Structures are given as C-alpha cells and as structure tokens.
C-alpha cells in the first residue's frame, strides 16, 4: 500500500509540474485530495479506513469519464455575429483570412499604444475571436485526399 501512496503523490507532483493542477475544477481538486488522504491512510497501516476515500474518488473519476465533457465552443448567436462583422467592417461572406486582415488593420489604429482605449481594443479582439469561432463552427470539415 505504501507503493500505491507513492504513485498517487507522484501523480499530484506531475500535475503540479505540468500546470494541470491549476486548470482543474474545484470538485476535481477535492477528489484528488481525498484520494491522497486515502492513499496515505492505507500506507500508514489503515487499509480499511483508507479504502473508503479511495473508492469515493475512483467512483467520481469513473462517473466523470463516463459523462461526456461539455463542448468548449457554444453556439454563436446571429445577432452577435452581425455586430462583430459591423465592428470590423466585414461583409456577410468574409472568410477567416479577411477577418484577420480587418482585425490587423483596425487594431493598428485603435491600439492603446497608439492612443486608443483598452476597452475598444478588447472589443475588437473579442469580435475577431467570435467571428473566427463562428467560421470554424460553420465551415464544413475538409475532405482528406488520402486514398
């Protein structure tokens, strides 16, 4: 059981080293802490008491793996897309390259280093991100030329 505790603690060290621990949700962090406590209790000679937190955290991990993760990109509202296109001065059929070019042209004039405001620059950046995300969601997947 001491070896298992070392594996769990090594895993936590790896999470810290790679920066993944900072990106965990609060529930994931709590379950990881419960797993560490269970592993340490089992290593200290109390395997029955240590098994309970380990089983709880493993059950949580199993449920989380079984449940699909929420989609990172949510649908974009048509009104938001229209507003973003108007802000960047783009037509309805502008592609991703046109969005990037319009953003570069506009941000060069309103950047805070050029005398513009941070709020306007942030709004322009958000419009670019929204249009690029919308383009990626609506663009049909590219067909591969592999035989």
Description:
Keywords: Membrane, Transmembrane, Transmembrane helix. The chain has about 150 residues and is mostly helical. The protein folds into 2 domains: about 1-65, no CATH class; about 80-140, DnaJ domain (Helix Hairpins, Orthogonal Bundle). It is about 70% helix and about 0% strand. It has 6 helices and no strands. It has helices spanning about 1-20, 25-45, 45-65, 80-90, 95-110, 120-140. Helix 2 (about 25-45) runs antiparallel to helix 3 and helix 4 (about 80-90) packs across helix 6. It is elongated.
- How many helix segments? 6
> pLDDT under 50 segments (min length 5)?
none
Largest sheet: none
**Proportion of strand residues:** under 5%
Give me the count of strands: 0
Number of domains: 2
Helix content: 55-70%
How do the SSEs run, as a string of H and E? HHHHHH
Q: Distance N terminus to C terminus?
A: 52 Å
Mean pLDDT comes to 81
Structural class: mainly alpha
Q: What's the Cα radius of gyration?
A: 24 Å
Global shape: elongated
């Amino acid at each position: 059981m001491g070896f298992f505790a070392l594996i769990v603690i090594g895993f936590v060290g790896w999470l810290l080293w790679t920066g993944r621990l900072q990106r965990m949700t609060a529930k994931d962090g709590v379950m990881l802490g419960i797993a560490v406590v269970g592993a340490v209790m089992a290593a200290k000679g109390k395997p029955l008491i240590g098994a309970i937190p380990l089983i709880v955290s493993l059950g949580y991990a199993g449920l989380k793996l079984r449940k699909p993760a929420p989609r990172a990109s949510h649908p974009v509202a048509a009104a938001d897309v229209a507003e973003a296109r108007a802000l960047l001065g783009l037509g309805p059929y502008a592609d991703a390259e046109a969005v990037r070019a319009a953003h570069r042209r506009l941000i060069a004039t309103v950047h805070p280093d050029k005398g513009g405001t941070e709020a306007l620059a942030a709004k322009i950046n958000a419009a670019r991100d929204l249009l690029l995300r919308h383009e990626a969601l609506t663009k049909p997947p590219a067909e591969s030329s592999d035989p």
